[in-house]
Structures are given as C-alpha cells and as structure tokens.
Specification:
Elements (H helix, E strand, L loop, with lengths): L7 E6 L2 E6 L10 H15 L6 E6 L10 H6 L8 H11 L4 E5 L2 E3 L1 H6 L4 E5 L3 E3 L2 H4 L7 H9 L1 H10 L3 E2 H6 L5 E3 L4 H14 L2 H13 L5 H9 L9 H8 L3
Parallel strand pairs: 2-3, 3-4, 4-6, 5-7, 6-9
Antiparallel strand pairs: 1-2, 7-8
Length: 248
C-alpha cells in the first residue's frame, strides 16, 4: 500500500472495493477519527452500483487490535454517543456482500467490526477474541448479539467470560469465521472468493442479502411467504444471463 495519511484507504478493482484500516504502527487500533473515515466510505459504498463486493482488512500485520485504549483513557469522543456501533450497523446493512480478511490480531472492537461483515476469512495464525473483560469494559458495538449469532450462545459466553484468544484455525472450527487459510494464502483466498461473488449477478446477491435481513425476525411460514412474493423483483441481468447459458 502506498504511504498515505488516510486512516481508511479505499481501493477499487474489477468490481471489488477493499477498505483497509490504516494505522499499522498501532495494529489498526480504532479511534473516533478512524470511524469517521470508515463511515464516509461505507455511506458512499451503499449507493455505489459499480461495486459488487466489499473487502474489509487491515494494513500491516494485523486486522485490528481493538479500540485504542489510550484514547478511551483520555476521553476521546466520537461525533455522537453511538457513532461506532451505528457505523458497524451501516457496514452490516451494505447492499453488497462483505468479507472481513483477518490476519494477526482481531480483538474486541476489531472483532465487533469484523462481525459486521457477511463472511470472515482468517489466516490460520490469526488471533481472535473478545477481551472486554480483561480491560473492565462492556460490549456496546454489537458483540452480545453478533457473536452468539455466529457461534451459538454457549460458546459465545465462554469466549466472552474468559477473554480467551483463539487462532484462525480454531475460529473456523467453531464457525466464528467461514474459513481459515495458511497465512501466505490469505490474500489469494479472499481475492478468489470476491471474484466468485462478482462473477455472479450482483442483483441476486443484493436481493438475497436483503431478504435474509428482512426475514430474520419472521417465523418460518412468514419468511417463506415473503420470499415467494419476490419483494425486490427480478435481477436486471436475468434475461441476459439465461440467454447466455442456453445451449447453442
């Protein structure tokens, strides 16, 4: 990555937008200023139809070591009381499929940020954990909701109560991440996954993501009926894709 003063760097290539947390000397620890930049990128991507997939990662050797503890001690504030949590909510609501690419540290606020993504891919040696308890902090950015959704309530309780760090390989085994890869294959694995996503109909992915979110709190019969109603219509490229797939 080129040297830049930006705290979050956006790079677009072939329909994939990569957002990189850019405080490598601080292991990409989260500050209010970083969240302001991240929010601006997320808001811009929400309306960007030239992007079919979003990758979130960190510069250097870590995804994100968590919230900047020095800033907390100094009383540094975000623009509004729940700005960080609402930024993660906005990330979760992005219409495009999102992938967290995790190497090195992914702790506490960093894990909460990663959990805002649809898919998580971690290097085998990455270290993930909820360390709120180690520092006498309480989750307020979504950990108590999103972590149990990923790993189940009992496993989430164990991770939260113990502040235990686990490897990327162990995170994959319990479903915290979708998969782990050898460290030197992480970039390639995420590139290939993103390419698979953008090779398919972007509208289909957006509609699937929206329907999954819409039906989360419905009972089964309601969810089935909602899906059958085709609430978002048909993908704009459906006819083109069907025609291209016809035998010649």
């Amino acid at each position: 990555m080129e040297t830049t003063d930006a705290l979050v760097v956006r790079d677009d290539r072939v329909g994939v937008s990569t957002l990189t947390l850019n405080r490598p000397a601080k292991l990409n620890a989260l500050t209010p200023a970083l969240f302001v930049e991240l929010r601006a990128h997320v808001d811009a991507l929400a309306g960007d139809e030239t992007v079919g997939c979003v990758v979130l990662t960190g510069a250097g050797r870590s995804f994100c070591a968590g919230n900047d503890l020095g800033g907390i001690a100094e009383g540094v504030r975000a623009p509004t009381p729940h700005f960080q949590a609402e930024t993660i909510d906005a990330l979760e609501r992005l219409p495009q499929p999102t992938i967290a690419k995790i190497r090195g540290h992914c702790f506490t606020g960093g894990l909460e940020l990663a959990l805002g993504c649809d898919l998580l891919v971690a290097a085998a040696s990455a270290q993930l954990g909820d360390t709120h308890g180690q520092w006498g902090l309480v989750a307020s950015w979504g950990m108590t909701v999103r972590l149990p959704e990923r790993v189940g309530l009992a496993t989430a309780k164990e991770l939260m109560y113990t502040a235990r760090r686990i490897s990327g390989a162990d995170a994959a085994a319990i479903g915290l991440v979708n998969r782990s890869t050898p460290d030197d294959e992480l970039d390639r694995a995420v590139d290939e996954l993103a390419a698979e996503i953008v090779a398919n109909s972007w509208d289909t992915s957006r509609f699937d993501k929206a329907i999954l979110a819409d039906t989360r709190d419905m009972d089964r019969d309601q969810a089935l009926a909602y899906e059958r109603s085709t609430p978002y219509g048909r993908p704009r490229d459906m006819a083109e894709r069907l025609e291209a797939g016809r035998p010649r």
